[in-house]
Amino acid sequence: xxxxxxxxxxxxxxxxxxxxxxxxxxxxxxxxxxxxxxxxxxxxxxxxxxxxxxxxxxxxxxxxxxxxxxxxxxxxxxxxxxxxxxxxxxxxxxxxxxxxxxxxxxxxxxxxxxxxxxxxxxxxxxxxxxxxxxxxxxxxxxxxxxxxxxxxxxxxxxxxxxxxxxxxxxxxxxxxxxxxxxxxxxxxxxxxxxxxxxxxxxxxxxxxxxxxxxxxxxxxxxxxxxxxxxxxxxxxxxxxxxxxxxxxxxxxxxxxxxxxxxxxxxxxxxxxxxxxxxxxxxxxxxxxxxxxxxxxxxxxxxxxxxxxxxxxxxxxxxxxxxxxxxxxxxxxxxxxxxxxxxxx
Length: 344
Description:
Strand content: 15-25%
């Protein structure tokens, strides 16, 4: 007897039509957004479709398929090169002011979004040329692989839509504080945003769905973004969540900035460790590089659960940098406690 699975009658009919058109299960599955193994079982009759519970199910599925394909096409067309160098046409000698927001780790577990409004007000008041959020703007516990879904703790994880809705509120709060001030805003995606793409890779049935939600969340609120690990250059200075070593791992630990300085030929601005550091490293022939770590923009003194029994020393605040002649020449730090006092 054929087993019943999750495919509706309308979706099943679309799968059969796609199979007739393409002649292969893999191509039919790809067109319909179904895992090839599941598609094979339906086509062989081992699975039977469930009755449609929604009379408009076919239209909903078709519209969703078109929307996802449009997003895939747009992302493919806009795919960035490994190194993203801005064409700012900034004359040598001109100074560039960049406000850098460190790891913010928005989450449904932190329902108060006031800090994002304070950050927006700070940008409005200081009027930088660019705003960079250095990555890990959200935690995305919903797609974390560190906690298995079958465990008690795993069953309490939020849904992906909860994480997205929480981030929507956070970015809306930032724009509310920003008001009418217009400034380019860019996110260098971090390892926590990478969770979304890694989850899709492990679950091809939802390929493009979660990343589409993230893309909509960011772009509709005026943020551009670059992939995890890719440097984004402003005035000759590289911005990225964390630098990746030759083994494909992030430089980490107490000497991370020294390691990056040894390998880098440009000044770099990073995040990831939640610890504010600005260090200048001499090179031969009167050269140098500066490595700046932007700390974190979590609520003041807030510690993530994973770090409650670890050494932290986290820095809570926002960093403003001045770039001149392809180097960081000035840095200013304002703590989250000060932002709260000013704007709370």
